[in-house]
Write a structure and sequence with these properties.
The protein is α/β, with parallel strands linked by helices. It has two domains: about 210 residues, UDP-n-acetylglucosamine1-carboxyvinyl-transferase, Chain; about 210 residues, Alpha-beta prism (UDP-n-acetylglucosamine1-carboxyvinyl-transferase, Chain), CATH 3.65.10. About 30% of the residues lie in helices and about 25% in strands. Strands 24-25-1-26 form a four-stranded mixed beta sheet. A four-stranded mixed beta sheet has the order 2-17-19-18. A four-stranded mixed beta sheet has the order 5-6-4-16. Helix 10 links the parallel strand 20 and strand 21. It starts with a strand and ends with a helix. Bound molecules: uridine-diphosphate-2(N-acetylglucosaminyl) butyric acid (EPU).
Length: about 425
């Protein structure tokens, strides 16, 4: 198992291209199961989660190939298996997004029920409610979700839950509705840019979806979909993470391939903290203004502040002038990073789903443990700002969502070594 050894204190400077979005790519790849013919998808990042999704698509009868130009070619060649086994699903919860496509195209599906993870319980009840409304029969057996349907039928489907809508639930129901008989209206649909991207791909495949990007999505079912070419949107969470890297290291970065309109809540917070963020061409320039101000942040569904940037901003606010408050409204237990940041000298007090951060702390390097993808990113950021050496164990979590993050940060002036854990201890 690899670890990172970070020598803190370097100011990051330079330019970097932001990769295609992991969370847009995963449901788009699953939606390729709906097509007859080949799909060609551009800007799929090279990450562990993507490799797990490729493995799953192969088990489900697809030919998947990364071409020399980096594009991913996906073609369904055998529709006999509709089983997403526990071995794959336990590695990556997002495997659940094959549920809707397989049910709609093959009429039956068996997907291992994803368990909880370091960020909370993560139920899939709303996905199942939505697919039942389209006519599916669903039961649970041996830890698997087993769903059957003839041709699905259009329906009015409400996808709201106690924490707002569901991103992958919307992806599942919208994908399944493309091949249903008649019209589906999804109310309280997720508005995240990743859903918009998926709808654009489905429409390029011949689907008839309108209203995507708003809380009401309408899908007119069609008889069949064909393969299509599609380019994945830039990863807004990776962009936000590198923006924080610029700010926390008191540096200046030019980030290319950034959709600033997908990141306005985070950019607005950065500006209020005192970070300079300017649009430049197809990207942004981010520079620290040296003195960082405290902030009050509440995570919300898009276009609110993203939960996937909560941990990274918490690392930044540990350095700010004054006390900050961070409330988590999507995953109320997503705070595993708090104890680890505290080991680095941050002063944070958790009360339920809210954390108060006493600012102006000089972080000091220490050994810490990565618990999940975004928590690991927060620890890397804190390590960049800390005095001395920070060792982050279990960095396989970060490899799930950021390609070669240490090499890319090092190209900007960071000092991060990847070592085998046994060498680090
Ligand atoms: N929820 C339910 N029932 C459901 C589905 C969700 O109660 O059937 C609840 C969840 O427990 C949570 C809220 O609804 O409280 C929102 O969860 P959502 O379903 O939107 O999350 P997701 O679709 O499973 C995606 C991203 C996450 C990101 C969330 C929220 C992917 C592969 N994952 O998960 O990304 O945090 O949306 O924006 O797209 C990450 O990249 O680090 C990550 C965790």
């Amino acid at each position: 198992m690899d670890s990172f050894v970070i020598e803190g204190g370097s100011r990051l400077r330079g330019s970097l291209r932001i990769a295609g979005s992991k969370n847009a790519a995963l449901p788009v790849m699953a939606a390729a199961l709906l097509a007859g013919g080949k799909s060609l998808i551009e800007d799929i990042p090279n990450l562990q989660d993507i490799r797990s999704q490729i493995e799953l698509l192969k088990l489900l009868g697809c030919r998947v190939e990364r071409r020399a130009d980096g594009k991913l070619e996906i073609e369904v060649i055998d529709e006999t298996s509709s089983h997403a086994p526990y071995d794959v699903v336990r590695k990556m919860r997002a495997s659940i997004c094959v549920l809707g496509p397989l049910l709609a195209k093959r009429g039956h599906v068996r997907v291992s029920m994803p368990g909880g993870c370091a960020i909370g319980d993560r139920p899939v009840d709303i996905h199942l409610r939505g697919l039942r409304a389209l006519g599916a029969t669903i039961e649970l057996e041996g830890g698997d979700i087993i769903a059957h349907a003839g041709r699905l039928h259009g329906a009015e489907v409400f996808l709201g839950g106690n924490f707002g809508s569901t991103v992958l639930g919307t992806a599942n129901v919208m994908s399944a509705a493309t091949l249903a008989e008649g019209t589906t209206v999804i109310e309280c649909a997720a508005c995240e840019p990743e859903i918009l991207d998926l709808a654009n791909y489905l429409n390029a495949m011949g689907a008839n979806i309108t209203g995507h990007g708003t809380p009401r999505i309408t899908v007119e079912g069609v008889a069949a979909l064909h393969g299509a070419e599609h380019r994945i949107i830039p990863d807004r969470i990776e962009a936000g993470t590198f923006m924080v890297a610029a700010a926390i290291s008191n540096g200046e970065l030019n980030l290319d391939n950034v959709r600033i309109d997908h990141l306005m809540a985070a950019v607005d917070k950065l500006r209020s903290i005192g970070v300079i963020v300017e649009k430049s061409g197809g990207g942004v320039t981010v520079a620290s203004a040296r003195r960082l101000e405290a902030a009050i942040i509440t995570t919300q569904p898009y276009p609110g502040f993203p939960t996937d940037l909560q941990a990274q901003f918490m690392a930044l606010l540990a350095m700010a002038n004054g006390n900050s408050i961070v409330s988590e409204k999507i995953f109320p237990d997503r705070f595993m990073h708090v104890a680890e940041l505290t080991r680095l000298g941050a002063r944070m007090h958790r009360e339920g789903a809210t954390v108060i951060i006493e600012g102006e702390q000089q972080l000091i390097g220490a050994p810490v443990m990565a618990s999940d993808l975004r928590a690991s990113a927060a620890l890397v950021l804190a390590g960049l700002a800390a005095r001395g050496t920070t060792t982050i164990n279990r960095v396989y979590h970060i490899d799930r969502g950021y390609e070669k993050i240490e090499e890319r940060l090092n190209s900007l002036g960071a000092k991060i070594k990847r070592v085998d854990q046994s060498d680090a201890e």
